[in-house]
Design brief:
alpha+beta, four-stranded mixed sheet, globular, binds glutathione
Length: about 240
């Protein structure tokens, strides 16, 4: 049985981590039997979440985890995506996970004190007060240096959110009236897209990114569709004000 290690659930969405939502959504979409173990990133083989254990092996990085699951248990995308569609899906996954994700990270870790207190409580709230404050401070320095290392953290907030809005526009246009990003059937891209979008639209953080995403009714409907389809135990709550 596969064990999926991730952060504790919070905010009525599957996970505060985009990548943990992605793996759990993929497991559910493909009906792969699994159990969930709640943990923190330090326990992961690369110091990050998610990671899975299967058949005595530990695997981290959602991209490699999904490659392993596809190779081991079958590739459902193979059945209905053409090579061209697959290449588009890969490009969109990179937009979501390597660009828009970082705009959301800045929203949580850098943008406002209010947002910082929310993410601090969600990740470290279970620790005793002194340990919580110390761990949160150390961790924040680390995440801020990752954001700077990526490069996007060197731009102004105005520039960052403009770039994030371009991603949202691209996603909303590409989704259009389709139920899922690649058409009538859900694919691996939807695990990734739902992970990122639900973390923008269904989380309590306020930012110009969220305000803009809230103008895209098809993205809101999409999150509701995926969540009610694959996480029926988590009732979709109408998204809140973004500003
Ligand atoms: N490329 C990795 C990214 C995983 C990742 O960055 N996870 C974050 C949580 S969203 C994490 O564990 N960060 C801890 C750290 O960087 O110390 C994946 O696809 O799994």
């Amino acid at each position: 049985m596969i064990t999926h290690h991730q952060f504790a659930r919070t905010w009525g969405i599957p996970n505060l981590s985009v990548f943990c939502v992605k793996v759990e959504t993929y497991l559910r979409m493909n009906k792969l039997p699994h159990k969930i173990a709640e943990t923190l990133p330090l326990k992961g083989p690369r110091g990050k979440l998610p990671y899975i254990e299967d058949d005595g092996r530990k695997l981290s990085d959602s991209r490699l985890i999904l490659n392993y699951l596809r190779a081991t248990y079958g590739d459902s995308d193979q059945e209905f995506l053409s090579p061209e569609q697959k290449s588009i899906a890969t490009a969109y996954q990179r937009l979501l996970e390597e660009h828009l994700y970082w705009v959301d990270m800045i929203t949580r870790w850098n943008y406002t004190e209010e947002n910082w207190q929310i993410i601090k409580q969600a990740i470290f709230g279970g620790l005793p007060p002194i340990a919580r404050d110390l761990a949160a401070t150390i961790y924040r320095v680390k995440i801020k240096s990752q954001i700077k290392g990526h490069g996007i953290g060197r731009l102004t907030y105005e520039e960052i959110f403009e770039l994030g809005k371009e991603d949202i526009d691209s996603l909303a246009k590409f989704l259009g009236n389709k139920p899922y990003f690649m058409g009538k059937q859900p694919s691996t891209l939807d695990a990734s897209a739902y992970g990122v979008l639900v973390n923008i639209l269904g989380s309590p953080f306020k930012s110009p990114l969220k305000t803009h995403a809230l103008t895209k009714q098809n993205l809101i409907d999409y999150c509701e569709r995926v969540q009610t389809g694959y996480f029926p135990e988590l009732p979709w709550v109408a998204v809140k004000d973004g500003s």
